[in-house]
Design goal:
The complex is a heterodimer of chains A (327) and B (614).
Chain A: H1 3-29, H2 35-40, H3 48-57, H4 64-76, H5 90-125, H6 130-144, H7 147-161, H8 183-221, H9 224-231, H10 236-263, H11 268-273, H12 279-288, H13 292-320, H14 322-326
Helix pairs in contact in A: 1-13, 5-6, 5-8, 5-10, 5-13, 6-8, 7-8, 8-10, 9-10, 10-13, 12-13
Chain B: H1 3-24, E1 36-41, H2 56-65, E2 71-72, E3 79-80, E4 86-91, E5 97-102, H3 116-128, H4 132-138, E6 141-148, E7 151-156, H5 177-180, E8 200-206, E9 210-215, E10 232-237, H6 241-250, E11 255-258, H7 261-267, E12 273-288, H8 315-322, H9 327-333, E13 339-341, H10 367-376, E14 398-404, H11 408-423, E15 427-433, H12 435-444, E16 449-454, H13 461-465, H14 489-500, H15 504-521, E17 524-537, E18 541-542, H16 561-565, E19 567-568, H17 584-613
Parallel strand pairs in B: 1-10, 1-11, 14-15, 14-16
Antiparallel strand pairs in B: 2-3, 4-5, 5-7, 6-7, 8-9, 9-10, 11-17, 12-16, 12-17, 13-17, 18-19
The chains are: A mainly alpha (327), B alpha+beta (614).
Chain lengths: 327, 614
C-alpha cells in the first residue's frame, strides 16, 4: 500500500469513527430520563407550566428526529449547545476546565512515562536481580491500588495531617480560594495544590509503563542483532541504549500516545477526591445533573482526542516501523 | 534517548508548564488586604440568573445581590419593613389596591438610581413573561404601576390580605430596568458581573467551581446601619463532602453546608469547629397514591390513570398505616438526630400558621391501634396468608414502595417502614430508583408509596397548593405537583379562600383548617422536618444570626442580614485569605537540587561513555 493511500485510509477511518460517536452520543443521553422534571422536582416555584416552559426552552418538546437534525447542524457550526444545568453555552462551561485537566493528567502521564521507562529498562537489563524483583512488586502494587483510596489516604496524611504526618499541602482545588496571586506566587500556589493528585496519579500510572518496557526490553535482548552486537565487542552500555532500548521503546511509545489521548478526559475519581476543577469532575457532576448537552460536548471532545491520538500513533508507528505500512 | 534523557525532558516540560501558569496571569500586583468569607457547598449553582436558577444556593446569592420589596425578618420570616426598600404599605378599603412607599435616594451598584419604576417594571416583567420562579406570587397581582420615584401601586385580581405588607408574599427579586430591559434573551443572560442593589454583587463565576461576590459600593443599607464587615464572599463548590470537611479543618474555608450527618458528627469533635442542625422550611414525607386510578373529579383535565391499588385511596387505610410509623425512631436512627418529627407540611417557624394536631387527635405510633383500625376498616387477613386483604377487591394489600438512589435517607428508612407495616399485616415491596425514574412512575400513577421531600417557601401558599385537585398530573407523562393525587373539593375551596381572606388572622385560620384536612386524610405521612447541616470555624468569624431565631440557618440565607452580621474574630487578619502549601523558595530549592542531580548523572554517564570510546 502506498504511503498516500495508507494515510488517506487512516484519516477516513478516524472521521467515520467520529461521525458514529456524534450520532451515538445523541441517542445515548436521551435514554436516561426527562431532565426537565429531574431538574425541578422538590423546589418551590415548580408547576406544570414551569416544566413545560423548561421543556420548550431545552428543545425537548420537539420530535426526536428534529432534535437530532438540529443537534448535528449546530455541532457542525461549532455550537455544542446550551447547558441545561448551568444555563450557559456548553463551550463556555467546558473551556474553563480543559487547562487544569491537561496540566494535571498531562504532567503525571509524562512523569509516569519517564520514570516507568527508566525503571523498566533497569529491571529488564538486570532481570531476576533484587532490584527487578523489588520494583516488580512495587509497581504491581501501585498499579493495582485503587486511586481513590490511595488519594484519600494521601489527603489524610499530607493535607489534614494525621499522627506523625505533617499537614503540608492543601486538601484540593486548583488554587487558593479567594487569593489574588499573580505571576510566580500564583505558579507556586498551583504547584502546591497539584502536588498530591500529581503524586497519586504518577504512582498509579507508573506500573503500566515499567511493566511494558521491561517485557519489551527482555524480548529485544533475546534478538539476534543483540547477540551480533555483543559478538562484535560493543560495550554493554551501548548495547543497551544504542541497540536494545530504541527497538524496545516502540510498544511503550504506542501506549504513551494512546494514553495522551485520554489525558483530556481526566481521571474522574482523582478529580473528584481532590476537587480538581477539570473535565473529569465536570463529567461526574454533569451525569448527576442529567446535563445532556454538556455530556454530549464532553464525550465528543474525549472521543475526538482519543481518535486523533490513535491516528497519530498509527501514522508515527508506520513511520518508525515501515513493516506496519507494508503489512 | 536514554532514561535520563527522558527525565531531563520531563523536568524541562514541567518547568515550561509552570512558567505557562505564571505567564497566564497578568503581572499586576496583589490588591490590598481584604476580609473574605468563604463558604462551601456540595453542589454547583444552577444559574446566577434569577429568571432561571432554582436551587436554594442560587437564592442565597440573589438574596445578597438584590432586594425583595419586603425582606424576610431574620427572627421569624415575618415582614421586616425596618430593613427593606419598602417602608410602609397602605391598603385600600376594598382590599384590592396596595400602595407601597419606598426609601428615597437608593442606587444600583453601577450608580444608577433605583426607583419605584424598577420595581414596577420587574413585577410586570415577571407577570407578562410568566417566569416560573415568581408565577405563584404573580397570580393574584393584576398590575403594578409607579406613581413617583418612591411609590408604586399594586392592584390585585381579587380582595386579599397577602399584599398588605404584614407578611412576605412577594419572594421576588427586584432587577435594574436599565440593564434587563435591554437584553434580547433574558433567560440566557449569565448575569456576571451583576448590577444589583444588595450589599454584595457577583463579580466572577467559574461554573461548577466558585462564585465571587464583592461589596457593592452604593449599598443603601449602610445609611441605616447595615454595614457589611466582609469585603468579599466566596461560594466554593466541593463535589466530595469529605474533601469539604478536610478543607474546613485546615481553615481553607470558613463555613460549610453538609448533607451527611456522619461527617457533621465527626467534625463536631474537632477543635475550633462548631456544628449546627438548622431548622428551615424543609421536610421529608412518605406519599401515598391516594387514588390516581379511582378519582372521577375532572379538575385540571384529570383522567384516571395508573394501576395503584384500591387500599391507598381509602383515608381509613392511610390513617391506620400512619400509626404504624415511628417517626422519632426515624429521626434518631436515619437522620442522626438532625431533624424533628413532622405532622404538617407547614413547618413551625413559617410565617403564616403551622398547625399541629391536638393530642387527642394525634395519630401516634401504636402498632396495636394501627392493626385494630385496619380491622375496623375491613382490612383483615381473610385467606390466612399473613397479609391483610382489601375489603373491596379481596386481594392481598401489598404496597410498591419507592426510595431514591440519590438520597441515602430514603434508602435507610425503608427497612424500618417495611418491618412496621409487615407487623400490621401490610405487604411491602421496596425498590430504589433514580429521581427521574420515580417521577415517571408517579406521573403514570404506578405506585402505592414513595419517599421524597420538599423545600417550600416560608409562606404556606405554595406547599398547600400542591394538594389541590388541579395540580394532579392530568395524564401519564404530564408533570404536575400533586404527587399523591389527593383531591378534596372542600380543601380546594379553602385554598381559594386563604388567598382572598382580607385579614391575616382570617387567613391563618383557613390555613389551619387546610392542614387539619391533610392530617386527617394523610395523603402524605409527614416524616421529619430535616435540618440544614452546617459547620463553621469559630476562630475566623463570629456574629452568626439564626433564621428563624435560635434554631435556624446560621447564615440566614432568606435575606442578606445573616451575612451582614458576621465579622472577623480578631481584627482584620482572621478574615484574610491565607496561603496554602510549601513556600516558593522551597520549591526553587527542590527544582535546583533536582536539576543538579540529573546534570550530575548525565555528565557522569557521558564521561563513562567517552572512556568507552578510548
Amino acid at each position: 500500500m502506498s504511503t498516500r493511500r495508507y494515510l488517506i485510509s487512516k484519516v477516513l477511518q478516524a472521521l467515520l469513527t467520529l461521525a458514529f460517536v456524534l450520532a451515538f452520543n445523541f441517542f445515548l443521553f436521551r435514554g436516561v430520563g426527562d431532565p426537565a422534571t429531574e431538574l425541578l422536582r422538590g423546589h418551590s416555584g415548580i408547576s406544570r407550566q414551569a416544566v413545560e416552559q423548561l421543556q420548550r426552552q431545552l428543545g425537548l418538546d420537539l420530535p426526536l428526529p428534529q432534535q437530532f437534525v438540529h443537534y448535528v447542524k449546530e455541532t457542525f457550526q461549532g455550537h455544542l449547545g446550551y447547558s441545561y444545568f448551568y444555563n450557559l453555552p456548553v463551550s463556555r462551561v467546558i473551556a474553563g476546565r480543559i487547562w487544569p485537566t491537561v496540566l494535571l493528567i498531562g504532567l503525571s502521564t509524562l512523569a509516569a512515562t519517564a520514570l516507568g521507562i527508566w525503571i523498566g529498562i533497569r529491571q529488564g537489563w538486570r532481570r531476576g536481580s533484587k532490584y527487578d524483583q523489588g520494583m516488580l512488586g512495587f509497581t504491581l502494587f501501585t498499579y493495582s491500588m485503587p486511586e481513590f483510596w490511595f488519594g484519600m489516604l494521601v489527603i489524610m496524611a499530607f493535607a489534614v495531617g494525621v499522627g506523625p504526618f505533617p499537614a503540608l499541602f492543601p486538601t484540593g482545588g486548583y488554587e487558593t480560594v479567594g487569593a489574588s496571586y499573580t505571576g510566580f506566587a500564583h505558579m507556586i500556589d498551583v504547584v502546591n495544590h497539584m502536588v498530591l493528585p500529581f503524586f497519586v496519579l504518577t504512582l498509579a500510572y507508573l506500573g503500566e509503563y515499567s511493566l511494558i518496557m521491561r517485557s519489551s526490553l527482555l524480548e529485544t535482548l533475546g534478538e539476534d542483532f543483540i547477540v551480533t552486537a555483543r559478538a562484535k565487542g560493543v560495550r554493554e552500555n551501548r548495547v543497551l541504549y544504542g541497540h536494545a532500548v530504541p527497538n524496545a521503546l516502540l510498544p511503550t511509545m504506542t501506549v504513551t500516545i494512546l494514553q495522551l489521548g485520554f489525558v483530556i478526559s481526566g481521571v474522574i475519581t482523582i478529580e473528584l477526591i481532590f476537587n480538581w476543577p477539570g473535565l473529569g469532575l465536570l463529567t461526574a457532576t454533569s451525569v448527576d445533573q442529567r446535563d445532556f448537552p454538556v455530556l454530549q460536548g464532553l464525550f465528543l471532545l474525549f472521543s475526538a482526542s482519543v481518535i486523533v491520538a490513535n491516528l497519530v500513533a498509527d501514522l508515527l508507528y508506520s513511520y518508525l516501523d515501515p513493516r506496519v505500512r507494508a503489512g | 534517548m536514554g532514561g535520563t534523557g527522558i527525565l531531563v525532558a520531563v523536568v524541562m516540560l514541567t518547568t515550561a508548564s509552570f512558567a505557562g501558569i505564571a505567564g497566564a496571569q497578568s503581572a499586576t500586583p496583589s490588591p490590598a488586604k481584604e476580609t473574605q468569607f468563604i463558604y462551601g457547598v456540595t453542589a454547583p449553582n444552577s444559574s446566577l440568573n434569577p429568571l432561571v436558577g432554582y436551587l436554594g444556593i442560587d437564592y442565597t446569592i440573589w438574596s445578597l445581590e438584590y432586594n425583595l420589596p419586603i425582606e424576610f425578618a431574620t427572627k421569624d420570616f415575618g415582614a421586616d419593613l425596618e430593613q427593606s426598600i419598602v417602608t410602609s404599605v397602605d391598603t385600600s378599603s376594598d382590599n384590592l389596591s396596595f400602595t407601597y412607599h419606598m426609601r428615597s435616594g437608593l442606587k444600583w451598584s453601577d450608580g444608577e438610581p433605583f426607583t419605584a419604576n424598577d420595581v414596577a417594571w420587574t413585577l410586570n416583567f415577571y407577570k407578562e413573561r410568566n417566569i416560573s420562579n415568581y408565577a405563584g406570587d404573580m397570580s393574584i397581582i393584576k398590575s403594578v404601576e409607579a406613581t413617583d420615584d418612591t411609590t408604586f401601586v399594586i392592584n390585585a385580581e381579587s380582595p386579599t390580605s397577602v399584599l398588605n405588607g404584614q407578611s412576605v408574599w412577594m419572594y421576588d427579586f427586584i432587577l435594574p430596568e436599565h440593564i434587563w430591559s435591554t437584553i434580547e434573551e433574558p433567560k440566557k443572560f449569565e448575569n456576571v458581573p451583576t448590577v444589583g442593589s444588595g450589599p454584595w454583587v457577583v463579580t466572577q463565576q467559574k461554573p461548577g467551581d466558585l462564585v465571587r461576590m464583592e461589596r457593592n459600593p452604593n449599598y443603601w443599607g449602610t445609611e441605616i446601619g447595615l454595614t457589611p464587615h466582609v469585603d468579599v464572599i466566596i461560594e466554593k463548590v466541593f463535589n466530595d463532602e469529605n474533601q469539604m470537611a478536610a478543607a474546613l479543618q485546615r481553615g481553607e474555608i470558613d463555613f460549610g453546608f453538609f448533607d451527611s450527618a456522619n461527617i457533621l458528627n465527626s467534625l463536631s469533635t474537632t477543635p475550633n469547629i462548631e456544628t449546627h442542625g438548622a431548622q428551615i422550611p424543609l421536610f421529608d414525607e412518605l406519599a401515598f397514591n391516594s387514588g390516581s386510578a379511582f378519582q372521577t373529579n375532572k379538575a385540571g383535565g384529570f383522567v384516571p390513570h395508573g394501576d395503584g391499588i384500591h387500599a391507598t385511596s381509602d383515608p381509613a387505610f392511610r390513617r391506620a398505616v400512619a400509626q404504624a410509623i415511628d417517626k422519632q425512631t426515624l429521626v434518631d436512627k436515619v437522620y442522626g438526630g438532625y431533624a424533628a418529627v413532622a405532622d404538617s407540611p407547614v413547618q413551625p417557624g413559617a410565617t403564616t400558621g403551622n398547625w399541629d394536631p391536638p393530642p387527642e387527635e394525634a395519630l401516634s405510633f401504636d402498632l396495636e391501634k394501627a392493626k385494630a383500625d385496619l380491622t375496623a376498616a375491613g382490612y383483615t387477613d381473610t385467606d390466612g396468608d399473613g397479609t391483610v386483604n382489601d375489603p373491596e377487591t379481596g386481594e392481598n394489600v401489598v404496597l410498591r414502595y419507592y426510595t431514591r438512589t440519590s438520597d441515602q435517607n430514603t434508602i435507610k428508612t425503608a427497612p424500618f417502614v417495611k418491618s412496621w407495616l409487615n407487623e400490621i399485616g401490610v405487604g411491602v415491596k421496596v425498590a430504589a430508583v433514580s429521581s427521574s425514574k420515580l417521577t415517571n412512575i408517579i406521573l403514570a400513577g404506578d405506585y402505592e408509596l414513595f419517599h421524597w421531600g420538599w423545600f417550600p417557601n416560608p409562606d404556606p401558599n405554595y406547599i398547600l397548593g400542591i394538594f389541590t385537585c388541579e395540580q394532579r398530573a392530568p395524564r401519564p407523562g404530564v408533570y404536575d405537583n400533586n404527587d399523591s393525587y389527593f383531591c378534596d373539593p372542600a380543601y380546594d375551596q379553602l385554598y381559594e379562600q386563604q388567598l382572598t381572606a382580607t385579614s391575616t388572622e382570617e387567613r391563618v385560620e383557613i390555613v389551619h383548617q387546610m392542614q387539619q384536612i391533610l392530617y386527617e386524610q394523610q395523603p402524605y405521612m409527614m416524616l421529619a422536618y430535616t435540618n440544614y447541616l452546617e459547620a463553621y470555624r469559630t476562630d475566623r468569624f463570629t456574629g452568626y444570626t439564626m433564621q428563624p431565631e435560635g434554631v435556624g440557618d446560621l447564615l440566614a440565607t432568606w435575606g442578606p442580614f445573616g451575612f451582614l452580621s458576621i465579622r472577623p474574630v480578631t481584627g482584620e487578619a482572621a478574615g484574610e485569605a491565607k496561603s496554602e502549601g510549601i513556600p516558593g523558595w522551597v520549591w526553587i530549592a527542590v527544582v535546583v537540587g533536582l536539576a543538579v542531580v540529573i546534570a550530575g548523572i548525565v555528565l557522569g554517564r557521558r564521561r563513562v561513555s567517552d572512556e568507552d570510546r578510548v
